[in-house]
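Quick start: read one record
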Amino acid sequence: MFLSRYHHTIDAKGRLSIPGKYRDVLAQRYGDSDILVVTKDPDLCLVVHPMEEWKRLAEKIKAIPGTVQAVKDYKRFIHGEAVDCTLDKQGRILIPPELREFARLGRDAMLVGLDDHFEVWGLERWQIKTEQMTREIGQIAGAVAGFGV
């Protein structure tokens, strides 16, 4: 599973190095698949899914009735902005300019593991998010406790 967080840099061409531990997870859990699906997240970061996990998510999204406008817009946001990114021999992916701009990715990025996928945050946005989560940890813990965690 993808755990922890890693501060990495994005080069001038938009290539992001995937941490070695994440590459290990990809190799052990997903075999030879070197394709990752990157898309926008409503939290203003990017979400990176191994192809196998993306297919699972896509099936769940497909099952939601598309007759409600919010559902149609969600599908557009998630699927319409998704791109396949192939891991190169140096363990990097090329993030398209539109996605880098959306997430305000500059030279510094924070990768955050979330079990079966991970997020890519612009460093400044990640710092703001971390401060917000720290302030609201009591509320967050209370909300999660309702799910038996």
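The longest helix spans residues 51-63.
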